[in-house]
Amino acid sequence: MQTLRLKLINMQTTKISILAALLSFSLGIAAQRIKVETALVDVGQVKYCRPATAVFDLRNAGKRPLTISKVDTGCNCSVADFPKAAIASGDKFQIKITYDARQMGHFDKIIEVYGNTNDDPATLEMRGVVVDEPVDYAGSYPFMLGDLSANCNAVSFDDVFEGETLTQRFHIFNPTSKTVNPQIMHLPAYLQAEISPSAVAPGHSAEVTLTLDSRMMRDYGYEKTHVYLGANPGERVAPSKEISVAVTLLPAASELSEAELKYAPSIQLSSQTLSLPAADGKKRTAVVDVQNTGKTALEIYSLRVISEGIEVSLSRRTLAPAETAKLKIKTNPKQLPADGRMRRIVLITNDPQQPKVTLDIDTN
Q: CA of 192: how far to CAs of 167, 188, 201, 232, 238, in Å?
């Protein structure tokens, strides 16, 4: 009996030792990984048959020395230059990919980096476009955004239907004496930015592409946010680098049949233009009737004034068929911008034929 107990104890001890060894080995391997600091490099326009090189920054985020065993560029048109010696834990390193540019048009290369890790290979991306002769944007850059200039400082996505993905583009210019790696900072979840090329030489321009994913937005209506242009990664945001981005999100485009549309809600305003002069400095008030002339309930999702100095209130947001709500408008001349522009109120509704209704206010 004593012998049996000893055997069982020895077996349990052996199992524990094996598990401990396996766990220790697993943790050691798992801790060994490659951290990609620069995942995408866009080299922009490349002259035909003039090789272009992209430089990627990486780091050994593991606990042991890292050895790069292979960098797979996916084709014979690209050559990789990478460290052959072991890279100490925590050290940064670079991988250079040179593309021969022997084929006209856009290119997008996926590069895989293999090393002594148990992870999947680290992935890099190099993109650009091969052209006969690179051409910079020929327009002007009237807006200074930090150290860089741009052809605009405001971007607008008008009448975006829920579910759509849209893009807007603008150009920036590097007037400094050093190459910069511009970044768009403080992007909300529904916006993504790409800059081509990633590195902008002195006296050259780049194109910024803003992509809006409306599925990431929460509320219908008008929304305005601000993003910031930095000349290099890690810069701080500042008002001088600000770019405003405005979005008007509408319900998804209607797919109702003509028969179904007959029973849909329908919005009607008693007036879509008001004159409320502010030159004499007096506050003014107006009331507009909002009526549901449809056959089912009208929902007013959003009510937004695109101006300072105007206040609005709506007596109700849900209107039964034939029901009317009162839209009250008040102006405060002291707060109105003195730019002479028309003011606008925007209503977003579930009317499939008029998801967006505007009310223009002339304060001149």
A: 9, 8, 23, 17, 20
